[in-house]
Amino acid sequence: LQMYREVLELRPPGHPHRASSLNNLALALSKQYDRSGSIHILEGALQMYREVLELCPPGHPDRHSSLNNLAGALSSQYDRSGSIYVLEEALQMYREVLELCPPGNPQRSTSLNNLAVALNKQYDYSGSMRDLEEALQMHREALELCPLGHPYRDFLLISLAGALSNQYDQSGSIYVL
Description:
This protein is mostly helical and 177 residues long. Helices cover 75% and strands 0% of the residues. The protein has eight helices and no strands. The chain has helices at residues 2-9, 18-36, 39-54, 63-81, 84-99, 108-126, 129-144, 153-171. α6 runs antiparallel to α7 (129-144). The radius of gyration is 18 Å and the shape is globular. It starts with a helix and ends in a 6-residue tail after the last helix. The relative contact order is 0.08.
């Protein structure tokens, strides 16, 4: 972390590589949060991800990744706080990420899955079948983009299985489409 902080000091506001330095430090803080669970560390990462997003306005080539990183950190904050407002902000960002990944984009399956996981969390909070149905649709679309042998297929299958389990819990039917 210290090295990332030192690099950031060498790249003050206005420096052309400030966004990448902020992002690197935020990623390191996110990893530290994963190990420690310290909300203060997560808040520091969130602040930096927000700064990165400000430096990547619509049309910027790194906007996709800055939105995705911030949405992921917000999703972690939701897991910790249970604040629906935080989850709604993450969902909004995941939707924008998906818009930036049209069909044919190699990041589309990941974007679909991230949105589906967040929608499943919203379903857990709200109990709304609409959220669950949209999550299932996104999971299935993501899975279609990852044929047998794809390195992330197992992860996508696990995510879909979790959403199908929720659907079973809701409907009581083993016949789900």
